[in-house]
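Assess this today:

___
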Amino acid sequence: MLLEYPTVERELFELNTQDPTVKPLATSFNSTEDHLNPDISDESVLGFRVGNLRFLLAANIFCEIVDQNKVSPLPNVQPWFSGVLNLRGDIVPIIDLHILLADGSTPLKNRHLLAIDKGKKTVAFWIDGYPQMLSPHFTSASAPDDLPDVLRQAITDYSRQDQHLWLTLSLDKLFKALSVHTVQDKD
């Protein structure tokens, strides 16, 4: 026996902000939304640390700290390619810049996985500590001499703030530089 339900015509609901009883609710909702999604200026940057180096990304790029227990290693890849993880159905590559920089000095308990971007463009890096929002007050700096070539190709700017050198990282350039060096020879 097939049940039939009566069809109901639906009207689109629009919030009437002119109604004095509705207006405080609308204002309250907007202020809550603003609190949950703070207005990040285009000039703000997100900073994270890997070993002795500090990297900058635009603050409007989606980033999150993810559970490091989900990492699946892959065979026959370079040591800096830690593996992949499944993040909401997307396979995310994990890059260990510590190994790429030959700086394995950070204890594993202080490291976190920082997933950057959304969907198929997501990549994760092992970082030291937690990322931080930084004010845009930087002075220009020159490139350090000891940067590996692969990383040097991915840096778009060198800046200084509070005695620290910050490297502005281009993810697209980093992927292009790393894609050439992903598979390890089986000698």
Q: What stands out?
A: Strands lie at 45-50, 53-58, 63-66, 81-87, 90-95, 111-116, 123-134, 139-140, 155-161, 164-169. The longest strand covers residues 123-134. The two ends are 69 Å apart (CA to CA). DSSP finds four helices and ten strands in the chain.
